[in-house]
Amino acid sequence: MTLLEGRTAVVTGGAQGIGFAIAECFVAQGARVVLGDLDLEATRDAVKRLGGDGVAEAVRCDVTVADDVDALLARAVEAFGSLDVMVNNAGITRDATMRTMSEDAFDQVINVHLKGTWNGTRKAAAIMRERKSGAIVNISSLSGKVGMVGQTNYSAAKAGIVGLTKAAAKEMAHHGVRVNAVQPGLIRSAMTEAMPAKAWDQKMSEIPMGRAGEVAEVANVVLFLASDLSSYMTGTVLEVTGGRFM
């Protein structure tokens, strides 16, 4: 028996990067997944890579719009019969120093990360509480723990996700719904590998394990929180950082 056999999971921002790695991990563990992303064509391509319509569905979703999130979750229930796992992963960056950051850049990041996670958490919880079971996993960041230069918007949003997760966990525990968060550190991706060498080396020097993480390593921790292996855990925040900023 695989860890998510017979369960249905929704992953926002699932077309690429960490989101796609989570979906891939879930499918390998027996889940059917619905991917929500702004880029519908990329999401459809991701579904093909996961194995097609039998195991995955693609939905265009703007997580800042409550009706879009409702439609995303409804597709999961309609296509696969249930909603068992919700992963709020969608995110963007608009980095700039506080002095030069525009108000719009601040609002965009707060809306996608924090409001988007709130929408996903509250909408999924409303469905899950009816069945008295479910697992919600919110993707925060190490930036929400320590703060990063040029990321007053992103660090604020990712810290907010931690507070949101803990509050929602307290509200939903007696309904049988668990809510946890993951804080990745430096994870190898197209975006991080495009950093200037000096910035990459600086970050690497802060990691006791001496290497960047892989997207699959984040996905495995999300799988743990989504599965019954973590059945007595709610309101927790797990760092996937190689020991950075302990």
Automatic annotation (TrEMBL):
This is 3-oxoacyl-ACP reductase FabG. Its EC number is 1.1.1.100. Keywords: Oxidoreductase. Gene3D superfamilies: NAD(P)-binding Rossmann-like Domain (3.40.50.720). It is an enzyme of class 1 (oxidoreductase). It comes from the Bacteria. One of its GO terms (molecular function) is 3-oxoacyl-[acyl-carrier-protein] reductase (NADPH) activity.
